[in-house]
Design a protein that fits this description.
The protein is an alpha/beta fold and 589 residues long. It contains 22 helices and 20 strands. The radius of gyration is 28 Å and the shape is globular.
Length: 589
């Protein structure tokens, strides 16, 4: 018997944690099982061909809102040519499983809820003929022409009983390792399926430390914790952060979903001196409208969240990713605008504008009539309108989301955006709203764009609006571009020979670039870009200083990058340039 464990991930870089748990839980039958992952971006005929060529007798899919339609098409075609047993599991099929099976009779079995014990018992019955099918908890299957569901399986209470999901899997370069130290959530948000599982269950700290050590020693590039609120237990969170700091080798990055207002001062102080890039924090703000937050059952002290985020932002060593959700109850277009501006003011490295999804099994789906929700009938069940926000307003927010992702969430535009929002608009949302409208009017939403074309389009927007200070804008645009790559050489104010003299000077090297003291000038030039600016652009962007006409020289170090992947900048104001010239003149004499 040949058994396939598979899924269609949303991106290649992702790994499916659930499949690995199932594989390890049923390792007794590993000689029968093959784990193979695909993505939703691959052609359906390629996936179909690979599965059919595999000659599998049992095909098990892990199903989510992003892949259910493609999975259904696949298994429908597979069943036409092969009499394989089709098994589905995952959050998208754990609710309304009997209704789903009636609509799609080519599904043979659905595993509901946490699947480790159920999958093992299913294989024991299927392969070893142990027990009876009707005694397997947590499955739905057809009996005659009607679906039958056995009682739900009890979730694993002692999580240490579960196997380590990466015990028999090598880490692939450039792929994210998904990992959990707990299951469940301390919140009861009506839009989230985690609220179905009451309370939080934890793996033991000893086990977590052993597994984190394994990831670090194997040099996994990124470990993304899927714990719904990693700092729900502050003492436990602090202990794990301390452990990661002690074991850090500079190779592995850890992504954590945290609650911003639950961070205590002890955790924040521990984060002050962590290696730059060791952690990424994702913080779900969702909304700053209290009525909306109360309606969905989420408790947030936004003032406390602001204080904590600002402190961590000032450390400049942790990438901060903040989330908003459009379409929540009681939040109209104007109150969402306020939520956007409130969160934008915190200057997160990434700001995600998401849209409410009324998931199967969620409380908000059961309450949808109370708020006149219109939402997609098929996955991902995204909101189309409600009594507070219209369909057209949500479409406008979709355009703003697109602009936000292309410009704010992509490195290399922050200085330009800061200038535009500071000088010409009352608030950031108004800028993104107007730029999104311009983008649509010009038809830019019809095609994809390179980074260079994005710079050209925002420049066209600036000049079409007739804004003043075009020289400052041009310098900011160039500064942003040079943070990404050495797109421009030094100006005529300091020619190449002068740059050579500056980089050759021992005093300059020891003061500004000590890490390159042992290299020859031609080798240093491989890592550095250089540009003379007429305005104090670097100070404006990094220190929020007023823009003044002040000639200065910036060296862009493409080897030493910050947490956003941008070049570090060595800034020389006019007096420093004169000092450098004095050094070079002294050397030449």
């Amino acid at each position: 018997m040949k058994i396939l464990l598979t899924s269609l991930n949303s991106k290649y870089i992702q790994t499916n944690l659930a499949l690995r748990y199932l594989y390890e839980s049923a390792y007794e039958y590993q000689k029968y099982i093959q784990l193979k992952e695909f993505t939703i971006n691959q052609e359906e005929h390629y996936i179909y061909n690979e599965i059919i060529r595999g000659g599998y007798d049992v095909i098990c899919f892990s199903v989510y809102i992003w892949n259910i339609d493609k999975v259904m098409d696949l298994i429908s075609n597979i069943k036409k040519v092969k009499d394989a047993i089709i098994v589905l599991g995952g959050p998208e099929v754990s609710f309304d499983s009997e209704e789903l099976m009636m609509k799609h009779p080519y599904i043979d079995y659905i595993i509901r809820g946490e699947g480790e014990a159920t999958f093992y018992n299913f294989l024991s019955w299927l392969i070893s003929k142990k027990g009876h099918r009707d005694e397997i908890k947590g499955i739905t299957f057809l009996s005659g022409n009607y679906p039958v569901s056995t009682p739900d399986n009890v979730p694993v209470q002692n999580l240490d009983d579960l196997p380590f999901p990466y015990r028999h899997f090598a880490f692939e370069k450039n792929r994210i390792i998904y990992y959990e130290t707990s299951r469940g959530c301390c919140f009861n948000c009506s839009y989230c399926l985690s609220s179905v599982d009451k309370g939080i269950r934890y793996f033991s700290l000893n086990r977590v430390k052993e597994e984190l050590t394994y990831f670090i020693e194997k040099e996994a590039p990124q470990v993304k914790f899927v714990d719904r609120t990693f700092n729900a237990n502050p003492a436990r969170c602090l202990e794990i952060i301390k452990y990661i700091k002690r074991r850090d080798t500079g190779k592995t990055n850890f992504h954590l979903e945290i609650n911003g207002d639950l961070l205590n001062q002890e955790i924040i102080e521990e984060l002050r001196d962590v290696r730059k890039g060791l952690f990424q924090f994702e913080i779900g703000v969702q909304s700053t409208c209290k009525e909306s937050i109360d309606a969905v059952g989420r408790k947030t002290d936004f003032d406390e969240l602001c204080r904590n985020v600002q402190m961590i932002r000032d450390f400049d060593n942790i990438n901060l990713h903040l989330d908003l959700i459009a379409g929540l109850p009681f939040e109209d277009y104007n109150t969402f605008k306020k939520s956007f501006n409130d969160v934008f003011a915190l200057k997160p490295h990434n700001l995600q504008l998401g849209f409410l999804k009324l998931l199967k099994g969620s409380r908000i789906r059961r309450e949808s009539a109370d708020h006149f929700y219109c939402f997609q009938e098929k996955a991902p069940y995204e909101v189309l309108s409600n009594k507070y926000i219209s369909a057209l307003e949500l479409i406008n927010l979709k355009m703003i989301e697109d602009i936000l992702d292309k410009y704010y969430n992509r490195p290399g535009f922050k200085g330009t955006l800061k200038f535009l929002t500071d000088k010409y608009y009352h608030d950031p949302f108004s800028f993104f709203e107007e730029f999104a409208k311009y983008w649509r009017q010009k038809g830019h939403h019809h095609i994809s764009h390179s980074r260079i074309s994005l710079y050209l389009i925002i420049s066209e927007f600036f000049y079409d609006k007739g804004f003043s200070d075009s020289i400052v804008f041009s310098e900011l645009l160039l500064y942003d571009r040079m943070l990404i790559s050495a797109s421009e050489s030094a100006t005529n104010d300091i020619n190449k020979s002068k740059i050579h003299d500056i980089l050759h000077n021992e005093n300059f090297r020891s003061t500004y670039i000590p890490q390159y003291q042992h290299l020859k000038v031609k080798e240093i030039k491989k890592f550095l870009g250089c540009k003379m600016f007429e305005y104090n652009i670097h100070e404006y962007v990094t220190q929020n200083k007023k823009i003044i006409c002040e000639k200065n020289l910036c060296f862009f170090d493409y080897c030493d990058k910050n947490i956003e992947g941008l070049a570090s900048v060595y800034y020389l104001a006019m007096e420093k340039i004169e000092e450098v010239r004095h050094w070079t003149e002294s050397k030449n004499t």
